[in-house]
Design brief:
Elements: H1 6-18, E1 27-30, H2 34-45, E2 52-55, H3 58-66, E3 71-72, E4 82-85, E5 89-90, E6 96-97, H4 104-112, E7 117-122, E8 135-139, H5 144-153, E9 157-160, E10 162-163, E11 166-167, E12 175-180, H6 187-195, E13 200-203, E14 205-206, E15 213-218, E16 221-226
Parallel strand pairs: 1-2, 1-4, 2-3, 4-7, 7-15
Antiparallel strand pairs: 5-6, 6-14, 8-12, 8-13, 9-12, 10-11, 15-16
The structure holds ribulose-5-phosphate.
The site of ribulose-5-phosphate has 17 residues, from helix 2 and helix 4.
Length: 227
């Protein structure tokens, strides 16, 4: 049996803890990423029946379907009892930076339909001021040069995310800019501002869709932080 790295062991632990937030027979939202993959696996192995799961990415859809979890379309539901997802950074207010897995747009849409956002992270994601992790922004390709200039005016260096020497294309057919060098001291104001730039589809600051609860995996166990 393969040995989990210590970080993966923390992710597995926090994923297991998130099962407590899944009400049997409810509709849930499921995020994207390596921590969420542990959650999907834990949900499939648990005896908790869900009415359906709304997925935030093609990758999570495929993983859930392969494990027999019923995936439903967001357009067919009105409300989700909970949305469970990871984050790249989370601060003391429950504000997050997300999008390391390029799924930020669908993540924000699905999170907005949920009564509760439960963020599952290992302790490396908990920060005082966000910004060390480059801020992901999904953009319309023709707007890339202008948006790079706009970030430059804010003191950030926006870099087009590449895969196999080509721009990475999201599930929505758009590009991702990763913005280095920003300190997110006013996340809500910055989210509101960047969201209005022409060509920005979604900025990876989740201040308006912040976490209600953070399950934080540490070597001493999973802490529950409420905001
Ligand atoms: C994907 C995300 C993920 O939640 C974020 O990147 C964290 O991923 P991981 O659990 O692999 O560290 O926002 O778009």
């Amino acid at each position: 049996m393969s040995q989990l790295s210590s970080q993966d062991a923390l992710k597995a632990q926090v994923a297991q803890a998130a099962l407590a937030y899944v009400q049997p027979h409810s509709l849930i939202g499921v995020g994207t990423g390596s921590t969420v993959n542990f959650f999907i696996d834990a949900l499939a192995q648990s005896a908790i029946p869900v009415q359906g799961a709304v997925s935030s990415s093609i990758a999570s859809t495929q993983r859930m379907q392969a494990l027999g979890i019923p995936v439903v379309d967001l357009t067919d539901v009105q409300s989700l009892s909970v949305y469970i997802d990871g984050a790249d950074e989370i601060d003391s207010h429950g504000y997050m930076v997300k999008g390391g897995g390029a799924a930020l747009t669908r993540e924000k849409i699905v999170a907005a339909q949920a009564k509760q956002f439960v963020c599952i992270v290992d302790q490396s994601k908990r920060v005082d001021v966000m910004g060390a992790f480059p801020l992901p922004v999904e953009v319309i390709p023709m707007a890339v040069p202008q948006i790079i200039r706009d970030f430059s005016a804010l003191g950030g260096q926006a870099v087009l995310r590449m895969r196999d020497e080509k721009p990475l294309v999201t599930d929505n057919g758009q590009y991702i800019l990763d913005v280095h060098g920003l300190k997110l001291t006013e996340p809500m104001a910055l989210e509101a501002r960047i969201s209005q730039w022409p060509g920005v589809v979604t900025v990876g600051i989740f201040a308006f869709q912040k976490a209600d609860i953070c399950l934080l995996a540490t070597p001493d166990g999973v802490q529950t932080l409420r905001y």
